[in-house]
Amino acid sequence: MISFKSKLLNATLAVTAAIPLATAGLFTSAGSAQAVALTGDFSLTGDGTASLLADSLTFNTPNTFTISPDPDLTTGEFSAFTKGAIGNILSFTSTSATNPFLDLGTNAATIGDGLNTFNVTSATYKLTQANPNLVSIDVITYGFFKSALGDLSQGQGIFTLQARGTIDSIKANWSTNTAVKATYSSLYFATVPEPATVLGLGLVGAGMVMSRRRKSVVQ
Q: What pLDDT sits at residue 137?
């Protein structure tokens, strides 16, 4: 988890450094408009189980989790939430999922209200033989967060499930369409920058400035 978070932070810093300082002023209004969007990162804890087939992942009920209150693990707007529920990945091949995939809440009563959510747009996984009798299943999801006010922010998450056996035994089960039972105890999600979107806003802003200047000259 920590390694993934560091890579995500480094990527964020790299993108930020790549934006020319000369255009910084153009993004001020856009940044203000997105102030209500969900940004930051958070870690989830729970003791749940899931059923994994070669092309799908189903989280068994109760599919709820607790959001860590540790300020080093949960930051930004996500600090306001304490609980959540997780959906299912219906297909890894051409990604489809039970969306919203995550539904965040400030208490148990607000889970499932359809507000403050994360929708999956693509997902993948990797099997690793952690020890002779245990397989780690790293699942990475990409998508977007949607705040209660409808503001969107790009995000991604990573979580590791564990299943008894070997990679070969898991694949043998899949060949007979038998799901593998896996457990999970923690997940990590975060918002990530959208350089193309930010740059697009900057170009639109520059165009508006030039347009206004032309109008002023004509007048």
A: 95
